[in-house]
Amino acid sequence: PSINAFSTSARSLTYSFVPVEQQSGLTLSLHLLNNGVDTATAITAHVEIALDDVILLQQDVPLLDTLLPLADTLVTWNSGWVSVESGSAVVTILISSAGPEDVPDDNSASVAYNITSASDGNNAMGIDDDLPEDFIDNGSSGFSTGCRFELIGPASLVHGIGVRFGAGTDTATSVHALLMDADLNLLSASGQHLVTDADLALSFAGGMVYIPLDSAVDITDDRDVIALIRFDQGTGALRVIAGGRVPTGAAWKVDADGTSTSFPDRAPLVRIYLSDPVTGMEQTGAIIERQQLLVAPDPVSGSAMVLSASLLPELSLVEVFDADGRAIARYPVHGLTSAGMRIDASTWPNGCYALRASGARSTHVARFMVAH
Fold first, then answer.
1. Considering Cα of 69, then 78, then 18, then 111, what sign does the dihedral take?
2. What is the C-alpha separation between 93 and 110, in angstroms, rounded?
3. Beta-carbon contacts of residue 91 (< 8 Å; ≥ 6 apart)
4. Better-scored residue on pLDDT, 153 or 90
C-alpha cells in the first residue's frame, strides 16, 4: 500500500491468482490501530501460512515497540515464503502486545489467494477478487478495459487473456484481446472473437472466457504488462464484470480513441494465462455443452427439473447464478441421474440464469429463463 501503483520498479499489487513461477517472497502488510486508552507496547505478529489447509510456515514477527492511544500505522515486511506447489493459500495473522487486552476479538485477520499452475488453475494471474461488484462498459461506444500485471522474467510466457462478461453483453459482439506494455505499446493481440451463448453461460456460471493471443509473448525481464479486452464499436454491446478494490493505476479503461484513459477502483475480471488452459473454466474438468444438461420447463415459472441426457454419477454440486454472476443457490447432490433433481425458482426475479453442475472430472453448464 505504500508503493505507487504506477511504479514499475517494485511489485505493489495484491494478486488473487498468481502462478507458482511468478511468486517472490510473500510481502505482508498490516494497518494497525490502537483503539485503547493506554499505549500498546511490544506489539508482535504471529503469522501462519497454510496451503490447502496444511500449515507450512509459522513466524513470530516483532512489529512495534509502542503505539500511542488511538494512533494507527502501516507495517510491512517480507515473510520470505514461496510455495513450491499450487493450491489455495491462506495467511492468518494474530496480533499481541505486552499489556492487557480488553477486546481480543479484533486482533486477528486472514487473507486468501490462489497459487496456480498449468494443471491447477491454468497458470492464471489476476488481481480481481472473483466476485461481481460492478460492471465496466461504455454505452454503445468502443472501449478497452483490463488490468496491469507485474511479471517476473524470464519465466513469463503469456499465451492468452481471460474475461468474464456481464449481463447486457450481446451475442455476436466483436472483441479482441490485447497485451500491451506499460506505455500501451502493443505486444500481441488475438484475432476477432465473437461472443457466443456459450461464452455468456460460462460467464454467468462464474467461469472465464479464454481468448488466445495470435502469438505468445515471452517476457525475458522483470516488467509490467497491461491486458485489455477491446470492444469493437457498432458490433453489439459489452459489459465486463469487475470486483475487488484496487489502487489507482491497477485497473484500466481506455476509450476508443486510445488516448483517454481512466482507472476504475474495481478490478475488471480480466486475467492473463501463462500456459494454454487445459479446461474451459478455471477449475479441473472439461466444460460439457448445454445438450448434456437441461432445465425444464424453460422458461421456469415455479419449480423445474434439472435433467441430464446421460447418467452423470460423478457430479457432486449444482449451483445457480443470476445474470450478474452471483451464486443464488447451491444443491449438493450424490450423483445426477436421468431422473434429474428439482430446483425451486418461485422466489427468484424474472431474468436469465445459469446452472452449473460440477464434479471431479467435468463441469456442465446450462442457461435458462425465469418468467413468473
1. negative
2. 6
3. 26, 28, 47, 48, 49, 110, 111, 112
4. 90
Backbone angles phi, psi at 327, to 5 degrees: -75, 120
Pairwise CA distance, residues 201 & 165, whole Å: 9
Residue found by looking up cell 517472497 in the block: 25
What pLDDT band is residue 294 in, cutting at 50, 70 and 90? Answer: confident
Residues contacting residue 207 through CB under 8 Å, at least 6 positions apart: 164, 280, 281, 282, 287, 356, 363, 365
Sign for the pseudo-dihedral over CA of 129, 130, 133, 138:
positive
Is 60 exceeded by the pLDDT of residue 289? Answer: no
| pLDDT band with cut points at 50, 70 and 90 for residue 280 | very low
Buried b / exposed e over 10-21, threshold 16 CB at 10 Å, is ebbbbbbbbbbe
Residues 6+ away with beta carbon under 8 Å from 139? none
How many C-beta atoms surround the C-beta of residue 185 within 10 A? 8
- Which run of H or E residues covers position 213? strand 209-219
Residue 34, pLDDT > 90, answer yes
Task: Provide Rg for the chain, Cα atoms.
Answer: 23
Other beta carbons within 10 Å of 138: 18
Instruction: State whether residue 198 is helix, strand or coil.
Output: helix
